[in-house]
Amino acid sequence: MDAIILQILNGLDKGSAYALIALGLTLIFGTLGVVNFAHGALFMIGAFCAVTVQRFLTLSFETVDPTRTDFLGNPMKVKTPYVEAWFGADTGAAIINWSVPLAILFAIPIMLLIGYAMERGLIKHFYKRPHADQILVTFGLAIVLQELVKHYYGANPIQTPAPDIFRGSFDFGTILGFDPNVIIYPYWRLVYFGFAAIVIAGVFSFLQFTTFGMVVRAGMADRETVGLLGIDIDRRFTIMFGLAAAVAGLAGVMYAPINAPNYHMGMDFLVLSFVVVVVGGMGSLPGAVLAGFMLGILESFASMNQIKAIFPGIDQIIIYLVAILILLTRPRGLMGRKGVMED
Amino acid sequence: MFGLDKKDTTLLIVVALMVLLAPFILNPFPEGSAMAQFNAGYPDLMQRFVIFGIFAIGFNILFGLTGYLSFGHAAFLGVGSYSAVWMFKLLSMNIIPAIVLSILVSGIFAAVIGFVSLRRSGIYFSILTLAFAQMSYNLAYSVLTPITNGETGLQLSLNDPRILGSSATADGSIPVTSLFGLEMRAAEQIQIGPWAFQFSVGFYTCAIIMLIAFYLSIRIFRSPFGLMLRAVKSNQQRMNYTGLNTRPYTLTAFIISGMYAGLAGGLLACMDPLAGAERMQWTASGEVVLMTILGGAGTLIGPVLGAGFIKYFENIFSKINESTLDGWFSFLPDGLQHAVVWVADHFVGSGWHLTLGILFMLVVIFLPGGLVEGGQRIYAWISGSKRKAKAAETKTEPAE
């Protein structure tokens, strides 16, 4: 029992990342009808927003401290981050410590801007082109973004630690009446899950309870009619693209402490997220979220040693296997609608 | 000739000449000159040209004719490589059984994957093939380690049985791949003036196989079967309405294209007997898509051009480094030189993939028909408006 709960918990954080990326993919697909292969790259850029903010905050100047000497006897050089010099040592250290959450504030406008520029500059010209062309051009864009990041940040993963108070693990078992240290779960993953839930709830309520969201939903159902009613649906869809990019970016920012960001993390997630979207049903937002969590949890179950003993290597292929099975038995995915992407 | 019409025969002969004379054509700059780094006439690179040409030709039979975009073709390449290396380990170092086995195994593999994937079309097909390829890649890395040797990759060793050959040569080293005793790595160098031309057995073996593959693809393009595949591309629904089941046709195309990929993988192993899982990674699948698109999907010569183009520039661009750039732009004023070199440095050396990505986007955006279409446009532009006016006059609208 405790092992099952532990695996469900372990699946949640990966599942949250899948769900967030798949949500963005589905938003783009549902509104603009474009298959965006560069979405993983947006996730990666989000993670590198966290890296950048951390670098900015730790920019420091060197001073010579005459009271201390290094091992050669020379006066020691001390690095002081500018932030600490400006805000005082304690506040400065706290700001640096909280760089990942702070990066969210930085990432939102950046990602909205990138999403907006991408849609206006590139995707706009591909609405009328075949899906194959859309896949190919966004695939090319993904390579470009990835290589640019690699050029400036190097090929190695960059450690981006979470704030100190989230280090360590939460003893989940004691709440449920198990022995201590049976079910432990890192705090940051809990934060990630909570954050993902908030973002997902935010997106859904934005679409459900605002006039803007209502118009967008109407546009998803019948773009032409909404246009005939005198509403500039294109502009709204562009904003939705920006929003989808921001969701992917936020997923990336918060994921940085879990897995040190490297330039190809986007591609790794992209393939899986596409599988998630297809399993959930193309164009279905709840389907994407559901499938994201489901596949995340399934993956973590498959990596249990007991299961690996029966089916060796199952943890590597479970997601693809499920996707193949679902596509063959329920061609529209779990919650796919009729008439979406049926060619 | 060979059951081809006049135009196709000319094309085949031109390609044959270009491939067979490649050691000359690709070596235009004398040895030791400043431009010698742009030469591509050495066996290793030329082999890659033709092998990836085969890969792209095969991919084009699927994508160019039926419009099914497979993102998992590298899996067949990897499977082909693995089977060829196993043949070298178990049977003998002769390349014939290795190539035959790699074609067969990848064909069976393609039949299984195609049977499942072709139930869906459009983007679902792309994702299914991608999922299968990633699955094979992950399996090759983990559970199938006894067969694939995991991360290290499959290599020959002195302890291999090699029933029909010998485990080791007389001097105790691993035997090399050969065609009935003709070693693949054997090469002849001819010195003409300052030029040095290299002729290797490996390259010519690959070249002849590639020409056969190219000939077969022309025949497929011109056959009733090819016509049926084109019909699938233009409107599958109508085909279904006429009471025709298209799936056997698409499946056959998928298997043929998988066998081509397997052949390419087998040849890669013949030239250099090792196989690794990274050949199956989806970036490798993306590369063949790129080659086909860049050359011109659905055209005969396109994929060959695309493969050659990409492999050539990959080789050249990766070799250029900052000091080379500094040398080139040294005529500029100092500050400007630094700026230009700084910008250009992004695109060369390890930045080759950036160039590749940009090229990819530019081709898809501006030249969806690839290099072939570009060539045709230039040709049309040169041959002037007279021809265009005539064409417009005689053009008839197809009846819908």
How many H/I helical runs of chain A?
A: 15
Query: Helical proportion of chain B?
Result: 55-70%
Strand sequence of the main sheet of chain A, in spatial order? 1-2
Low-confidence stretches of chain B: none
The main pleated sheet of chain A reads as: 2 strands, antiparallel
- Largest sheet descriptor of chain B: 2 strands, antiparallel
Instruction: Give the low-confidence spans of chain A.
Output: none
- Provide the residue-averaged pLDDT of chain A: 83
What is the name of the CATH class of the domain at 6-280 in chain B?
A: Mainly Alpha
Helix-strand topology string of chain A: HHEEHHHHEHEHHHHHHHH
Please explain how this structure is put together.
The complex is a heterodimer of chains A (343) and B (400). By secondary structure, chain A is mostly helical. Chain A has 15 helices and four strands. Chain A has helices spanning 2-32, 39-57, 82-87, 89-97, 99-121, 131-153, 172-176, 187-209, 211-221, 223-228, 233-255, 265-280, 285-302, 305-310, 314-329; strands at 60-69, 75-81, 169-171, 184-186. In chain A, the strands form two sheets. Chain A has a two-stranded antiparallel ribbon with strand order 1-2. Chain A has a two-stranded antiparallel ribbon with strand order 3-4. The radius of gyration of chain A is 23 Å and the shape is globular. Chain A starts with a helix and ends in a 14-residue tail after the last helix. By secondary structure, chain B is mainly alpha-helical. Chain B has 18 helices and six strands. Chain B has helices at 6-20, 22-25, 43-66, 74-90, 95-117, 122-141, 145-148, 201-222, 224-234, 236-241, 247-271, 282-295, 302-319, 322-328, 334-345, 352-366, 370-382, 384-394; strands at 154-155, 178-179, 182-183, 187-192, 195-200, 274-275. In chain B, strand 2 (178-179) and strand 3 form a beta hairpin. In chain B, helix 1 packs antiparallel against helix 8 (201-222). The longest helix of chain B is centred in the middle third of the chain and has 25 residues, at 247-271.
